[in-house]
């Protein structure tokens, strides 16, 4: 049975739209893919406007003086309109030659389609028609890694997202080697994240987060270096698991805490029994120890006016009974 490619493509797009709608309804931010942002800040616009006005006014004045010198006032009336029009286009072209790059920008200049040089920061000359320039931001850049559905090695589905911190250290290679270095770094990081997490178990994912981040960063760095970029770090932001798995992990953690509490209580009871046995042995070896202990207990009960202590049998009588009960040698 032949497969209708258009229907399959439409079904995939519909599924993606439904997933995006569910994320928005659940209060999650929609997926943000790494697309090129506005990289260049136009710092030379005012400078170019001043050059345009100065050259335009100067060209118009020169044309008027030439007409005035050649044919007097009638000649100036003829050359002035022509000079205004011609000087405007010349001034417009010359003003666009001057470009200004910010301190963090580098301009990759192509002349007639070939790499001509790397310019900036500051004032730079770029000749329109012959040259084209692309400004590259060399500051630390940030890209988000959208939620990725990953299945771990022990077959647990998780959703992971993160963020990439990187910078461009070679603007020439970043522009010439790859079509869009931002998008390329983002896509390669997403693939590396799925590969690395897919080779680990859920317990490793939850306990070895730093090692996972370092491993993903090293994998992406090995490829990003060819594109003139350097990966500063990759951080995992959120690890989302199915709700039933979360409940099971919560019960497991609760049972583990209850186990530790029971063991701690049993160890406390054992230590208390050992201390009581040692105290009893000490009292048995000292004739007056039990009497002192009895008096200490009475002293503890005495300060309260609501307690009344009645000794039915004196302590001496108990000691005498104990002495008589011993066999005579």
Tags for this model:
alpha+beta, Tetrahydropterin Synthase, Chain A, three-stranded antiparallel beta sheet, 9 helices, single chain, 329 residues, disordered N terminus, elongated
Produce a short descriptive summary.
This protein is of the alpha+beta class and 329 residues long. 56% of the residues lie in helices and 19% in strands. The strands form 3 sheets. A 3-stranded antiparallel sheet has the order 3-2-5.
Account of the protein in words:
It is a single chain. The chain is of the alpha+beta class and 329 residues long. Among the domains are: 93 residues, no CATH class; 107 residues, Band 7 domain (Tetrahydropterin Synthase, Chain A), CATH 3.30.479. It is 56% helix and 19% strand. It is built from nine helices and eight strands. A three-stranded antiparallel beta sheet has the order 3-2-5. Strand 6 and strand 7 form a beta hairpin. Helix 4 packs across helix 6. The longest helix has 51 residues. The protein is elongated and about 155 Å long. It starts with a helix and ends with a helix. The N terminus is likely disordered.
Which residue ranges are poorly predicted, with pLDDT under 50 across at least 5 consecutive positions?
Answer: 1-5, 24-34
What would you call the quaternary organization?
single chain
**Rg calculated over all Cα atoms:** 43 Å
Give me the CATH architecture of the domain at 138-244, please.
Answer: 2-Layer Sandwich
Briefly, what CATH class of the domain at 138-244? Alpha Beta
Q: Count of DSSP helices?
A: 9
CATH topology grouping of the domain at 138-244? Tetrahydropterin Synthase, Chain A
